[in-house]
Every structure is written in structure tokens, then in C-alpha cells.
Amino acid sequence: MRRLILLLLICLAASTRAASSSQDEQHFVASLHVGNAPRVRYLDADGRPLDYTAFALQLHRGSHYSITGDSHAGMAMLRLRPPGAGPGQPGRFAFGRGAVFPPFALPSWQGGMRRLDDFRGHYILISFFFAECAPCMAEVPTLNAYAREHGDMDFIAITYEDAATAHRFVNDHGLTWRVLYDAQALTDTLGIGIYPTLMLVDPSGHVAGAAVGMSMHDDSAKRLADLRGWIAQWKRATQ
């Protein structure tokens, strides 16, 4: 009888803790303002998935996080920052093939807001850049040439910088891709710290492949051939 009572007490305590944790998460998610019945993913500082309880424990210990989301789609992804890190100081890049690409809603230099769901159903090639990045400048002719060859894909260039800086980069270097800006939260969540970074997202919204950096020493034909090869390889792997 004592064992039965003890077992019932343990089960009751566990049930109470689970209910309390669920209520805490509901209050926390509501504070994020990411839509009704949102789907929220939690990541540790290295980009590995966490449940809410483990995530909340790190917040209680003083950790901070980046968040990227889309209230229209009711989705958000939160990633803990490395100890002592602030915006623009991301953890390691950890979004390999098959990972869910983070939701976003970002202003477009061409006007309006663009979301990940706007491009679902097509392959999306994304280039992350910043205005003073010499390799980012050097890759523009390659990106333009590849986009001209592949009208069946979508192309997005994303920067953490502001609209004026993005505008100046487009005008100075002739980038023809759609450009999204003010994306610090997205780049931090992804862990992008080396530029340029290229990512291919498949039609279902998962990462198909990624490449960090592009050589400035190769000629334009070699850079274009490399890009064609990477994309073809990534597509074959996802299929």
C-alpha cells in the first residue's frame, strides 16, 4: 500500500510539473506575438534542437536568444546566443542538409514584405552578404549569370544592414536579385558569420545545401561553373 501511495504521489508531482511547464510555455509564446496557435522551435547556442523546458532553464541562468519568425504563418525559431554574445555575434553555422530553414518576414528593397512561404514550391538560392564585403562584390556577376540561366528558381540576397546600405550595394554592383534587408535576427539564428554564404532551400522549405565563401582569385567562368556544380549536386542529394 505504501508503495502504491508513493507511486501515485510521484505521478501526481510529475503531472503537476508538466502542466506548469506547459502553462509557462503558453505565456512565453504569447509574449512573442507570432500569431495564433504558433509553431515554435527552440535551439541551443550550437543550433541543436531543445525542448521548451531546457530552453527556459538556460534563460533562467541568464542566457539570451535571437528570434526570427513570421506572424502571418504563425511560426518562429529561437536560438540561444553563445555566452556574452550580442546581435551580430552568432554561434556556429549549423544548418546542414535536411534542416528546416528558419521562418522570416523581411522588408524587400523592391518593396513590401517577403516571407519564406512566398517562395514555397520552388528551389530558392539565397546569398547572404554585406556591403563592404569584397568577396560579396566579386560574386555578383556570377549570381546574376546563374539567375539568368534558371528561370525556374527563386533568388534572394539577404543582408543584416539597412535599406539605404542595401540600395547602395545594388546600385554600385548591379545585383539583379530580390534583396531583403534588416535581417540580423535571421543571420544570427542561422549562425552566419562568414560572408558570402550561399544556401539552397528546397521546395518544402528544408536546406538542400550550403557553401561558405567564394574565391576572388578564380575567373568568372570558373566561379559560374563551380556554382552550377554545387547546385546540381545539392539538388541530386535531395531527390
From TrEMBL:
Question: Which CDD domains does the record associate with it?
Answer: TlpA_like_family
Q: What InterPro entries does the database record attribute to this sequence? A: AhpC/TSA (IPR000866), Thioredoxin-like_sf (IPR036249), Thioredoxin_domain (IPR013766), Thioredoxin_ResA/DsbE_sf (IPR050553)
Record-linked Pfam families: AhpC-TSA (PF00578)
| Parts of the chain that traverse the membrane | none
Q: Which residues form the Thioredoxin domain?
A: 95-236
**What span is annotated as the signal peptide, if there is one?**
1-18
Taxonomy, superkingdom: Bacteria
Q: Which UniProt keywords apply?
A: Signal
- Can you say what this protein is called? TlpA family protein disulfide reductase
Q: Which organism is it from?
A: Dyella jejuensis
